Amino acid sequence: WGCLKIHIRESSHERGRGCKQLRRNSITPAILSPVRALRSATEMEVRRLPGRRVCTVVLCTVWIFTSFAAKSQTAATAGQWSPIGPPEATVESLDIDPANSRHLIAGTYFGGLYQTYDGGASWTHIDTAFNESPVFAFAFDRSRPSVAYVGTFQGGVFKSLDSGQTWTPADTGLTDLNIQSIAIDPFDSTVIIAVSGTSTFRSTDAGGTWTAIDSAIQNVAGRCVTFDSLTPGSVYLGTLGSGVLVSTDAGVTWNALNQGLGNRTIAALNFNDEANRRLYAATSDGLGFELLPGA
After folding, report:
1. How many CB atoms lie within 10 A of CB 68?
2. Which helix (H) or strand (E) holds 134?
3. Predicted confidence (pLDDT) per residue in 242-271, tens digit
4. pTM
5. Count of CB atoms within 10 A of residue 280's CB?
6. CB-based contacts of 163-166 (< 8 A; 24+ apart in sequence)
7. Of 49, 118, 126, nearest to 89 (Cα)?
8. CA 103, CA 184: separation in Å to the nearest integer?
9. Max CA distance (Å), the chain
Protein backbone atom coordinates (compact mmCIF):
# COMPACT_ATOMS: atom_id res chain seq x y z
CA TRP A 1 0.00 0.00 0.00
CA GLY A 2 1.40 3.39 -0.97
CA CYS A 3 1.55 6.64 0.93
CA LEU A 4 0.14 9.86 -0.50
CA LYS A 5 1.77 13.04 0.79
CA ILE A 6 -0.36 16.15 0.69
CA HIS A 7 1.28 19.02 -1.19
CA ILE A 8 0.43 22.62 -2.04
CA ARG A 9 0.58 24.37 -5.38
CA GLU A 10 -0.24 28.03 -6.03
CA SER A 11 -3.35 28.42 -8.17
CA SER A 12 -6.51 30.47 -8.39
CA HIS A 13 -8.74 27.57 -9.44
CA GLU A 14 -11.47 26.35 -7.15
CA ARG A 15 -11.87 22.83 -5.80
CA GLY A 16 -13.90 20.24 -7.60
CA ARG A 17 -16.24 17.70 -6.09
CA GLY A 18 -16.69 13.99 -6.05
CA CYS A 19 -13.04 13.07 -5.63
CA LYS A 20 -12.40 9.38 -5.18
CA GLN A 21 -9.96 8.30 -2.52
CA LEU A 22 -6.44 6.91 -2.91
CA ARG A 23 -6.00 3.19 -2.32
CA ARG A 24 -3.02 1.26 -3.54
CA ASN A 25 -0.50 3.26 -5.51
CA SER A 26 2.10 5.71 -4.31
CA ILE A 27 2.76 8.44 -6.82
CA THR A 28 4.48 11.80 -7.11
CA PRO A 29 1.83 14.42 -7.97
CA ALA A 30 2.11 15.90 -11.44
CA ILE A 31 1.77 19.63 -11.98
CA LEU A 32 -1.44 19.86 -13.93
CA SER A 33 -4.22 22.31 -14.60
CA PRO A 34 -7.25 21.10 -12.62
CA VAL A 35 -9.64 21.53 -15.53
CA ARG A 36 -7.42 19.22 -17.62
CA ALA A 37 -6.79 16.76 -14.79
CA LEU A 38 -8.41 13.70 -16.29
CA ARG A 39 -8.38 14.79 -19.92
CA SER A 40 -4.58 14.80 -19.82
CA ALA A 41 -4.15 11.65 -17.74
CA THR A 42 -2.24 9.86 -20.49
CA GLU A 43 0.10 12.85 -20.97
CA MET A 44 1.30 13.07 -17.38
CA GLU A 45 4.48 11.58 -15.97
CA VAL A 46 2.50 8.74 -14.46
CA ARG A 47 3.14 5.08 -15.11
CA ARG A 48 0.20 2.73 -15.40
CA LEU A 49 0.87 0.85 -12.18
CA PRO A 50 -1.08 -2.24 -11.11
CA GLY A 51 -4.45 -1.41 -9.61
CA ARG A 52 -7.18 0.94 -10.66
CA ARG A 53 -6.46 4.30 -9.07
CA VAL A 54 -3.53 5.94 -10.80
CA CYS A 55 -5.67 8.75 -12.22
CA THR A 56 -7.52 8.99 -8.94
CA VAL A 57 -4.37 10.00 -7.11
CA VAL A 58 -3.67 12.81 -9.51
CA LEU A 59 -7.24 14.05 -9.41
CA CYS A 60 -7.37 14.10 -5.63
CA THR A 61 -3.99 15.74 -5.39
CA VAL A 62 -4.74 18.50 -7.88
CA TRP A 63 -8.11 19.49 -6.49
CA ILE A 64 -7.04 19.40 -2.88
CA PHE A 65 -3.98 21.52 -3.45
CA THR A 66 -5.33 24.09 -5.89
CA SER A 67 -8.27 24.80 -3.59
CA PHE A 68 -6.16 25.39 -0.55
CA ALA A 69 -2.96 26.84 -1.96
CA ALA A 70 -4.40 30.25 -2.78
CA LYS A 71 -5.19 30.75 0.91
CA SER A 72 -2.10 29.16 2.42
CA GLN A 73 0.64 31.22 4.01
CA THR A 74 3.10 28.34 3.63
CA ALA A 75 2.63 27.72 -0.08
CA ALA A 76 5.78 27.65 -2.18
CA THR A 77 6.43 29.70 -5.29
CA ALA A 78 3.80 29.26 -7.98
CA GLY A 79 4.36 26.05 -9.91
CA GLN A 80 6.15 24.31 -7.02
CA TRP A 81 4.95 21.79 -4.46
CA SER A 82 5.69 21.46 -0.77
CA PRO A 83 4.57 18.71 1.66
CA ILE A 84 2.13 19.68 4.40
CA GLY A 85 1.45 16.33 6.10
CA PRO A 86 0.00 14.81 8.14
CA PRO A 87 3.40 13.25 8.93
CA GLU A 88 3.83 9.49 8.68
CA ALA A 89 0.25 8.99 7.54
CA THR A 90 -1.14 7.29 4.47
CA VAL A 91 -3.96 9.56 3.32
CA GLU A 92 -7.03 7.81 1.94
CA SER A 93 -9.54 10.69 1.89
CA LEU A 94 -9.70 14.39 2.63
CA ASP A 95 -12.18 17.25 2.68
CA ILE A 96 -12.16 20.95 3.51
CA ASP A 97 -14.52 22.41 6.08
CA PRO A 98 -17.04 24.57 4.16
CA ALA A 99 -17.14 27.00 7.09
CA ASN A 100 -13.36 27.31 7.50
CA SER A 101 -11.07 26.75 4.53
CA ARG A 102 -8.04 26.31 6.82
CA HIS A 103 -9.70 23.40 8.61
CA LEU A 104 -9.01 20.15 6.76
CA ILE A 105 -9.71 16.61 7.92
CA ALA A 106 -7.82 13.67 6.44
CA GLY A 107 -8.88 10.03 6.63
CA THR A 108 -5.93 7.67 6.79
CA TYR A 109 -5.12 4.03 6.29
CA PHE A 110 -5.34 2.26 9.67
CA GLY A 111 -4.85 5.59 11.43
CA GLY A 112 -8.31 7.13 11.70
CA LEU A 113 -8.62 10.89 11.29
CA TYR A 114 -6.22 13.83 11.44
CA GLN A 115 -7.16 17.50 11.29
CA THR A 116 -5.46 20.84 10.79
CA TYR A 117 -6.75 24.32 11.62
CA ASP A 118 -3.83 26.17 10.04
CA GLY A 119 -3.95 24.88 6.50
CA GLY A 120 -1.58 21.99 7.11
CA ALA A 121 1.17 23.65 9.13
CA SER A 122 0.30 21.35 12.04
CA TRP A 123 -1.91 18.29 12.46
CA THR A 124 -3.59 16.58 15.40
CA HIS A 125 -5.18 13.16 15.66
CA ILE A 126 -8.93 12.94 16.30
CA ASP A 127 -9.72 10.12 18.71
CA THR A 128 -12.56 8.00 17.33
CA ALA A 129 -14.03 4.53 17.59
CA PHE A 130 -12.48 3.78 14.20
CA ASN A 131 -8.89 4.79 15.03
CA GLU A 132 -7.53 1.51 13.66
CA SER A 133 -9.68 1.41 10.54
CA PRO A 134 -8.92 2.76 7.07
CA VAL A 135 -11.13 5.76 6.28
CA PHE A 136 -11.80 5.50 2.56
CA ALA A 137 -14.43 8.25 2.30
CA PHE A 138 -14.91 11.62 3.98
CA ALA A 139 -17.50 14.27 3.15
CA PHE A 140 -18.63 17.51 4.77
CA ASP A 141 -22.25 18.53 4.26
CA ARG A 142 -22.01 21.78 2.26
CA SER A 143 -25.43 22.99 3.38
CA ARG A 144 -24.76 22.18 7.05
CA PRO A 145 -21.00 22.55 7.58
CA SER A 146 -21.04 21.11 11.10
CA VAL A 147 -22.24 17.77 9.67
CA ALA A 148 -19.80 15.29 8.17
CA TYR A 149 -19.69 11.61 7.22
CA VAL A 150 -16.94 9.02 6.95
CA GLY A 151 -16.92 5.68 5.21
CA THR A 152 -14.65 3.09 6.81
CA PHE A 153 -13.30 -0.36 6.02
CA GLN A 154 -15.52 -2.93 7.75
CA GLY A 155 -16.88 -0.26 10.08
CA GLY A 156 -19.59 1.26 7.91
CA VAL A 157 -20.61 4.92 8.02
CA PHE A 158 -20.10 7.31 10.93
CA LYS A 159 -21.66 10.76 11.30
CA SER A 160 -20.44 13.90 13.06
CA LEU A 161 -22.56 16.86 14.17
CA ASP A 162 -19.66 19.00 15.42
CA SER A 163 -17.39 19.45 12.39
CA GLY A 164 -15.66 16.12 12.80
CA GLN A 165 -14.75 16.19 16.49
CA THR A 166 -17.04 13.38 17.68
CA TRP A 167 -18.63 10.54 15.73
CA THR A 168 -21.52 8.11 16.07
CA PRO A 169 -22.36 5.06 13.93
CA ALA A 170 -24.82 5.67 11.09
CA ASP A 171 -25.00 2.20 9.59
CA THR A 172 -28.59 1.02 10.07
CA GLY A 173 -29.53 -0.92 6.95
CA LEU A 174 -26.01 -1.31 5.59
CA THR A 175 -25.38 -4.92 4.62
CA ASP A 176 -21.76 -4.26 3.62
CA LEU A 177 -19.66 -2.17 6.01
CA ASN A 178 -16.75 -1.61 3.63
CA ILE A 179 -17.65 1.90 2.43
CA GLN A 180 -15.52 3.29 -0.38
CA SER A 181 -17.31 6.45 -1.51
CA ILE A 182 -19.92 8.86 -0.12
CA ALA A 183 -21.76 11.71 -1.85
CA ILE A 184 -24.28 14.15 -0.39
CA ASP A 185 -27.06 15.71 -2.47
CA PRO A 186 -26.23 19.45 -2.60
CA PHE A 187 -29.92 20.36 -3.00
CA ASP A 188 -31.23 18.05 -0.27
CA SER A 189 -28.57 16.93 2.17
CA THR A 190 -30.86 14.34 3.71
CA VAL A 191 -30.19 12.30 0.56
CA ILE A 192 -26.84 10.51 0.63
CA ILE A 193 -25.42 7.73 -1.52
CA ALA A 194 -22.74 5.38 -0.21
CA VAL A 195 -20.83 2.84 -2.27
CA SER A 196 -19.38 -0.34 -0.78
CA GLY A 197 -17.45 -3.22 -2.24
CA THR A 198 -20.59 -5.19 -3.04
CA SER A 199 -23.58 -2.83 -2.86
CA THR A 200 -24.72 0.74 -3.35
CA PHE A 201 -26.90 2.31 -0.66
CA ARG A 202 -29.17 5.35 -0.45
CA SER A 203 -30.31 7.27 2.61
CA THR A 204 -33.16 9.78 2.64
CA ASP A 205 -32.88 10.72 6.32
CA ALA A 206 -29.31 12.05 6.58
CA GLY A 207 -27.75 8.68 7.30
CA GLY A 208 -30.33 7.52 9.81
CA THR A 209 -31.22 4.49 7.69
CA TRP A 210 -29.92 3.02 4.45
CA THR A 211 -31.53 1.04 1.65
CA ALA A 212 -29.66 -0.97 -0.95
CA ILE A 213 -30.43 0.20 -4.49
CA ASP A 214 -28.71 -2.67 -6.29
CA SER A 215 -31.83 -3.61 -8.25
CA ALA A 216 -32.18 -0.02 -9.47
CA ILE A 217 -28.62 -0.10 -10.81
CA GLN A 218 -29.16 -3.56 -12.33
CA ASN A 219 -26.96 -5.21 -9.69
CA VAL A 220 -23.71 -3.78 -11.01
CA ALA A 221 -20.93 -3.05 -8.53
CA GLY A 222 -20.37 0.63 -7.78
CA ARG A 223 -16.97 2.21 -7.25
CA CYS A 224 -17.47 5.98 -6.89
CA VAL A 225 -20.30 8.49 -6.83
CA THR A 226 -20.71 12.25 -7.34
CA PHE A 227 -23.62 14.68 -7.48
CA ASP A 228 -23.92 17.53 -9.97
CA SER A 229 -24.00 20.60 -7.73
CA LEU A 230 -25.74 22.75 -10.35
CA THR A 231 -28.50 20.40 -11.53
CA PRO A 232 -31.04 19.19 -8.95
CA GLY A 233 -31.40 15.41 -8.84
CA SER A 234 -28.43 14.61 -11.07
CA VAL A 235 -26.01 12.04 -9.68
CA TYR A 236 -23.41 9.85 -11.40
CA LEU A 237 -22.17 6.42 -10.37
CA GLY A 238 -18.89 4.92 -11.55
CA THR A 239 -19.01 1.13 -11.70
CA LEU A 240 -16.89 -1.99 -11.93
CA GLY A 241 -16.99 -3.00 -15.58
CA SER A 242 -20.23 -1.19 -16.47
CA GLY A 243 -19.04 2.34 -17.11
CA VAL A 244 -21.10 5.23 -15.73
CA LEU A 245 -24.72 5.27 -14.62
CA VAL A 246 -26.73 8.47 -14.27
CA SER A 247 -29.81 9.32 -12.22
CA THR A 248 -31.93 12.43 -12.65
CA ASP A 249 -34.12 11.78 -9.62
CA ALA A 250 -31.49 11.75 -6.86
CA GLY A 251 -30.73 8.07 -7.13
CA VAL A 252 -34.15 6.47 -7.46
CA THR A 253 -33.79 5.33 -11.08
CA TRP A 254 -30.63 4.92 -13.17
CA ASN A 255 -29.57 4.63 -16.81
CA ALA A 256 -26.27 3.87 -18.53
CA LEU A 257 -24.29 6.82 -19.87
CA ASN A 258 -21.52 5.14 -21.83
CA GLN A 259 -21.44 6.41 -25.40
CA GLY A 260 -17.75 6.64 -26.28
CA LEU A 261 -16.79 5.25 -22.88
CA GLY A 262 -17.91 1.66 -23.04
CA ASN A 263 -18.23 -0.73 -20.14
CA ARG A 264 -15.03 0.26 -18.42
CA THR A 265 -14.26 0.17 -14.71
CA ILE A 266 -14.45 3.72 -13.35
CA ALA A 267 -11.89 4.63 -10.71
CA ALA A 268 -12.96 8.27 -10.22
CA LEU A 269 -15.58 10.80 -11.25
CA ASN A 270 -15.30 14.56 -10.99
CA PHE A 271 -17.85 17.11 -12.13
CA ASN A 272 -16.48 20.46 -13.26
CA ASP A 273 -18.79 23.23 -12.06
CA GLU A 274 -17.29 25.87 -14.30
CA ALA A 275 -18.87 27.16 -17.49
CA ASN A 276 -17.87 24.26 -19.74
CA ARG A 277 -19.92 21.82 -17.59
CA ARG A 278 -18.03 18.59 -18.17
CA LEU A 279 -18.03 15.34 -16.24
CA TYR A 280 -14.62 13.67 -16.11
CA ALA A 281 -14.06 9.95 -15.58
CA ALA A 282 -10.81 8.15 -14.78
CA THR A 283 -10.72 4.48 -15.72
CA SER A 284 -8.81 1.52 -14.38
CA ASP A 285 -6.93 1.13 -17.67
CA GLY A 286 -5.21 4.48 -17.21
CA LEU A 287 -7.40 6.58 -19.51
CA GLY A 288 -9.38 9.74 -18.88
CA PHE A 289 -12.72 10.63 -20.50
CA GLU A 290 -14.95 13.67 -20.53
CA LEU A 291 -18.70 13.91 -21.04
CA LEU A 292 -19.45 16.87 -23.29
CA PRO A 293 -22.16 19.39 -22.37
CA GLY A 294 -25.66 18.37 -23.40
CA ALA A 295 -24.82 14.65 -23.51
Report:
1. 24
2. none
3. 999 999 999 999 999 988 888 899 988 887
4. 0.72
5. 24
6. 163/97, 163/99, 163/103, 164/97, 164/105, 164/113, 164/115, 164/126, 164/140, 165/126
7. 126
8. 19
9. 51
